[in-house]
Write a structure and sequence with these properties.
With about 240 residues, the protein is an alpha/beta fold. It has nine helices and nine strands. The strands form two sheets. Strands 3-2-1-7-8-9 form a six-stranded parallel beta sheet, with helices on both faces. It has a three-stranded antiparallel beta sheet with strand order 5-4-6. It binds nicotinamide-adenine-dinucleotide.
Length: about 240
């Protein structure tokens, strides 16, 4: 197994690092992921989580969606951990050109990262489905039941639900960043969600590193695989 020391050496040898991450990056900040044994998919709800966080479910059972969403997907008190902070520092130092994330929690920006491609959107952006008026996360937290706009329309989070397409510009930016990188660090993601996981195929560099608690489909291609908590690993770089 690889070590944080090797990861640090690889980063030192690279000029253009990109980080590609998922829910595992934020578990050490207290936000549960989906697929770990204590993740959301292994808890009991009236519907499976992938059903609840789908476009059709949102339209047909909006109140039930919001009950789950407020309860299990919004963590306003969560703070960036050592992984988020180290990535922001690498960007400031000119080493890292972009963070590509499947997360919707905004913790990379809270840590100071500037170029963040949020493939699945963000809980911090919300919009009226009728008039397009924008609302902050606080509006969702402070409202009860289905949040409504002044115009009467339903306010929907700018989060990509199952069955919805990704934003074209975000995908373009993410893919371009990955294609230009000489080092790609993949971390805290099961690589089970497509099309996001497929974006790794655009990487043409020589240094692919994986930092994940459990094995991933990218391990076979990676020159460095570290199976350890990502916050602990990044605290050591
Ligand atoms: P996932 O739940 O499928 O996989 C998480 C992976 O991270 C697992 O392989 C797990 O072993 C690993 N992991 C967990 N904690 C870790 C840690 N501390 N250090 C290293 N590895 C760790 O997550 P995914 O691949 O991102 O896919 C789930 C989807 O759910 C994403 O599309 C995302 O939009 C969404 N999601 C987001 C959040 C968030 O914004 N924080 C939370 C839950 C789910």
């Amino acid at each position: 197994m690889g070590t944080a020391k090797e990861l640090k050496e690889w980063i030192a040898q690279s000029k253009n690092v990109v980080f590609f991450g998922g829910a595992g990056v934020s578990t050490e900040s207290g936000i549960p992921d989906f697929r770990s044994s204590d993740g959301l998919y292994n808890q009991k709800y009236a519907y499976p989580p992938e059903t609840i966080v789908s476009h059709d479910f949102f339209l047909e059972h909006t109140a039930e969606f919001y009950r789950f969403y407020r309860d299990r997907m919004l963590f306003p008190a969560a703070r960036p951990n050592a992984a988020h902070l180290a990535l922001a520092r690498l960007e400031r130092e000119g080493k890292l050109s972009a963070v590509v994330t499947q997360n919707i929690d905004g913790l990379h920006q809270a840590a100071g990262s500037k170029r963040v491609y949020e493939l699945h959107g963000s809980v911090h952006r919300n919009r009226c489905m009728r008039c397009g008026k924008r609302y902050p996360l606080a509006y969702i937290l402070e409202s009860e039941g289905v949040p409504r706009c002044g115009c009467g329309g339903i306010v929907k989070p700018d989060v990509v639900l199952y069955g919805e397409p990704l934003d074209d510009e975000t995908v373009q930016g993410a893919v371009n960043a990955i294609a230009r990188a000489d080092m790609l660090i993949v971390g805290g993601t099961s690589l089970a969600v497509y099309p996001a996981a497929g974006f790794l195929d655009f990487f043409r560099g020589s240094r692919l590193a994986v930092v994940n608690k459990t094995p991933t489909p990218a391990d076979g291609r990676a020159g460095l695989v570290i199976n350890a908590p990502i916050g602990e690993v990044f605290a050591g770089i």
